[in-house]
Design brief:
Elements lengths: L1 E14 L8 H8 L8 E14 L9 H16 L2 E2 H4 L2 H4 L4 H12 L5 E9 L2 E8 L2 E14 L7 H4 L6 E14 L10 H16 L2 E2 H4 L1 H4 L7 H18 L3 E10 L2 E5 L5 E14 L8 H8 L8 E14 L10 H16 L2 E2 H4 L2 H4 L4 H18 L3 E10 L2 E6 L7 H13 L1
Parallel strand pairs: 1-3, 6-8, 11-13
Antiparallel strand pairs: 1-2, 1-15, 2-4, 4-5, 5-6, 6-7, 7-9, 9-10, 10-11, 11-12, 12-14, 14-15
Helix pairs in contact: 7-10, 12-15
This protein binds zinc ion (ZN) (2 copies).
One zinc ion binds next to strand 7.
């Protein structure tokens, strides 16, 4: 069974968008304030995603090895540097966020099973690279505040307070993909992209009542759920973004930190997300191995009385938007399933002792994620939707993801077997 692990790293560096073959005026015209001497600095945040099968110890890779490789091969060299000069790759192609992500991929890929590099220049703008030549994606995050009510289609009996007019601070993430220019390192002019989002979405939605003020919703029976708003925003952005020479690949709309929707422009298909937290203790040690051996494998995590985390869980469900309710999945039903299957049995518990599955299986983040996805899959199916992915964040530096399509019926047995093998 495949599992994706994500490791965070950070570095601070400066860069300048300046091509020596152009005049000062031409540079200023092309890059605006980014061409200014001596450049600008950022606190970059890097997420390296790696994929693999779980080993006999319940891990994809030893995280301490991963941490050192990322530092030696990438962040240690970039930290406190002037990016334009630090690596020869940036002489050829400017160190834009998307190009830095690409070069980090190229330098790390001989050492780690990378599937994605995500690089945040700041919390409102980041690039992702997945090893596809010059193709990369860029995401910008923006905000609007708006009122809505999930009526008249929905009954107050079932949907309660949401049928009253209320409001949210919506967060919007717009992702575009395209080919990097081999000299400027850009897939798109970020300033032009921001302007498109401002003109076509923020201007319309910010400080509005969506049901009354936006004709698309006012003149129809379309309920302004997060699903329907995302879909409409995607429709609004499609053509102006195409005119910038890139493709809109995703709209992600957050109603709150606990609820958001991803829409990829595919008919009525949406990816609905809820997030929740639980606090639990665990100990990483296989019962059949000596303390010394366990400490060798799991480090401090093998200490005999255990330790704990605030786990953050994100559940992604794939569904079709219902034309009447405007929802991809019954939110109340989904929350109830997560509460019954995950929160109740795990929150404020000692996983090794309180969850019978972990009596035999070491509760690494990977195995916990695997257990949760396996537990949620069939109740969500009974709700008429499909579990797509779960993400479990154990600490700001470490998280893992399981795609439900990678699970199979025999997975639970396989995980137990791995440990039996390890003990031989
Ligand atoms: Zn609402
Ligand atoms: Zn731990």
């Amino acid at each position: 069974m495949e599992c994706i692990i994500n490791r965070r790293a950070q570095f601070s560096a400066t860069h300048r968008y300046w091509l020596p073959e152009l005049s000062e005026t031409e540079n200023l015209e092309k890059f605006g304030p980014f061409s200014k001497f001596p450049g600008q600095g950022h606190n970059y945040v890097l997420f390296i995603s790696m994929s693999g099968e779980l080993d006999e110890y319940g891990m994809v890779l030893n995280l301490s090895d991963v941490k050192h490789t990322i530092k030696n091969e990438a962040t240690g060299q970039l930290d406190f540097s002037y990016l334009n000069d630090v690596w020869p790759e940036f002489k050829q192609t400017l160190p834009t966020t998307e190009n830095i992500a690409k070069v980090i991929w190229e330098r790390l890929t001989p050492h780690l099973p990378i599937v994605k590099v995500q690089l945040l220049e700041h919390p409102q703008m980041w690039a992702e690279y997945q090893g596809e030549g010059k193709k990369a994606s860029l995401t910008i995050r923006s905000h609007f505040s708006a009122a809505h009510r999930l009526a008249p289609n929905l009954s107050a009996e079932k949907y309660g307070k949401c049928t009253r007019t209320h409001g949210h601070n919506y967060h919007l993430e717009v992702t575009v993909e395209g080919e990097m220019d081999s000299r400027t390192g850009m897939i798109v002019d970020v300033r032009a992209l921001k302007k498109v989002v401002e003109d076509h979405v923020l201007e319309l939605f910010d400080h509005s009542c969506i049901n009354e003020d936006i004709p698309y919703f006012a003149e129809s029976q379309i309920v302004p759920t997060t699903e329907n708003i995302s879909r409409y925003i995607s429709d609004l952005l499609q053509s102006p973004i195409q005119k910038l020479g890139v493709k809109l690949s995703q709209v992600k709309l957050f109603e709150s930190d606990q609820l958001w929707v991803e829409y990829k422009g595919n008919g009525s298909e949406t990816f609905f997300n809820v997030a929740t937290d639980f606090s639990a203790a665990h100990r990483l040690a296989h019962p059949d191995l000596s303390l010394e051996k366990n400490k060798q494998i799991y480090g401090k995590c093998a200490r005999i009385n255990g330790h704990g985390h605030n786990y953050h869980l994100e559940v992604t469900v794939k569904g079709e938007i219902d034309p009447v309710t405007g929802m991809g999945v019954d939110l109340g039903g989904l929350n109830q399933i997560i509460k019954n299957s995950v929160i109740e049995p795990m929150d404020h518990g000692f996983l090794n002792k309180d969850v019978s599955f972990f009596a035999q299986v070491v509760p690494t983040a990977e195995n916990i994620a695997f257990y949760i996805s396996n537990t949620l899959r069939s109740p969500i199916q009974q709700l008429g939707a499909e579990l797509y992915k779960i993400k479990l964040v154990e600490s700001p530096n470490n998280s893992c993801e399981i795609y439900a399509a990678d699970l199979d019926q025999t997975s639970v047995n396989a995980a137990v077997k791995q440990l039996e093998l390890a003990a031989v």
